[in-house]
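Retry 2 of 3 after timeout on previous attempt. Resubmitting structure tokens to design endpoint.
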């Protein structure tokens, strides 16, 4: 059976068997799901209005949460709710998240500020929020049953404390974690230094990595999966639906990466050496920073790295676990590499005249990226295993893959996609004569 037939035959069975029930009700019955955000594009940083000054981060394919000052306290409002997230054009997933998105919006504060966060629960079950790695009073830590009562559906709880040391952190529930985090409930929590010139960079990107189990033809992640994931995302987006990291040549760049998935991710940047400058435990002193081209981000951890963008070009940026840069695929497909399949189609056609068999995999899997171009349809609501077009043809990547685009002509603060890089004469690989 070829991959297309495999997906078509298995999707219906799996979809019928993996319906998630909550309190005796399906997700769709429990609550109407909020539509996907109209725009999944990266929002340029918004300069703070009021409060302590800071240089804002750029949340890849996301945004930062709005806030207002009230009597010297910075107030935020988070709504935990079912949402739809478009992982890539045409691939929409039923998630749980915050304020209409999954991951939720990035919260940006400054050390020394007094903050107040209102959390309203519109989920079909109770929840909490844990501020992962943040130093705060025990009663604000968000562990249901231990440090606070669970937040019932329809209720609003308030978290309030004075922010301490700066750094890169996350937020997520500590209530029915297996379901709620697998459904996408997480976000970034950035604490800026009180002194805006401290650890100053020109461009500051941030994102979370996630793993999902979404069978072809279905819309809701399987929250019971422990290891066998088939979708890998940067901030809830899959290549080629992920935006590039657009950088002006000469800029100092910081990248912050958080991992709330079930496995580690060795994040690799082409074309550069960088220094690892921070973890979720804080900033690393300059004397202790170390050079890398790949940084492993552990489960439940954060890593920050920095570099000066002195090499123009389009540079690949991706997880180095090969199956994390692919779209959904069946894990039980037979290994056909090196198997002589000549004549198989004709023999099957004689036995099953109405069945189409396409021998694949004998010389590798690169031909998978040709399937959409050949007009071979996929099951409903899924992606090809390899997708994305570059200036020289198919890029043959999916999942956790994007491009760092470094250009000399960009203006400060310009995050517009500059298109593909034009290689100077004599700098492009060519076919030997």
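Retry 2 succeeded. Sequence:
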């Amino acid at each position: 059976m070829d991959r297309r037939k495999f997906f078509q035959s298995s999707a219906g069975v799996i979809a019928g068997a993996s319906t998630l029930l909550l309190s005796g009700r399906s997700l769709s019955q429990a609550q109407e799901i909020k539509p996907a955000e109209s725009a999944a594009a990266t929002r340029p940083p918004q300069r703070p209005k009021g409060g302590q000054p800071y240089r804002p981060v750029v949340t890849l394919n996301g945004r930062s949460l709005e806030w207002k000052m009230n009597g010297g306290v910075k107030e935020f409002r988070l709504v935990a709710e079912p949402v739809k997230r478009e992982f890539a054009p045409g691939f929409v997933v039923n998630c749980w998240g915050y304020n209409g998105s999954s991951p939720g919006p990035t919260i940006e504060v400054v050390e020394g500020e007094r903050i107040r966060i209102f959390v309203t629960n519109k989920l079909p079950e109770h929840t909490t929020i844990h501020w992962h790695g943040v130093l705060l009073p025990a009663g604000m830590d968000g562990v249901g049953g231990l440090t606070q009562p669970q937040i019932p559906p329809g209720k609003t709880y308030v978290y309030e404390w004075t922010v301490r040391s700066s750094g890169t952190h996350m937020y997520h529930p500590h209530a029915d974690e297996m379901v709620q985090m697998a459904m996408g409930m997480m976000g970034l929590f950035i604490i800026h230094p009180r002194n805006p010139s401290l650890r100053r960079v020109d461009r500051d990107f941030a994102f979370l990595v996630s793993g999902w189990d979404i069978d072809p033809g279905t819309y809701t992640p399987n929250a019971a999966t422990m290891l066998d994931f088939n979708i890998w995302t940067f901030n809830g987006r899959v290549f080629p639906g992920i935006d590039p990291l657009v950088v002006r040549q000469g800029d100092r760049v910081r990248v912050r990466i958080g991992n709330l998935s079930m496995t580690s991710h060795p994040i690799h940047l082409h074309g550069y050496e960088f220094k690892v400058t921070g973890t979720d435990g804080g900033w690393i002193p300059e004397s202790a920073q170390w050079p890398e081209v790949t940084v492993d981000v552990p489960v439940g951890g954060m890593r920050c790295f920095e570099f000066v963008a002195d090499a123009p070009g389009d540079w690949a940026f991706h997880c180095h676990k090969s199956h994390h840069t692919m779209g959904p695929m069946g894990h039980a497909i037979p290994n056909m590499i090196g198997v002589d399949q000549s004549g198989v189609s004709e023999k099957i056609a004689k036995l099953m005249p109405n069945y189409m068999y396409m021998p694949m995999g004998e010389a590798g899997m690169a031909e998978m990226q040709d399937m959409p171009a050949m007009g071979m349809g996929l099951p409903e609501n899924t992606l090809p295993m390899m997708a994305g077009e570059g200036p020289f043809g198919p890029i043959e990547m999916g999942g956790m893959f994007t491009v760092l685009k470094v250009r000399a002509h960009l203006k400060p603060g310009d995050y517009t996609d500059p298109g593909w890089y034009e290689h100077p004469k004599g700098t492009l690989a060519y076919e030997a004569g």
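Attempt log closed. The chain has a mean pLDDT of 85.
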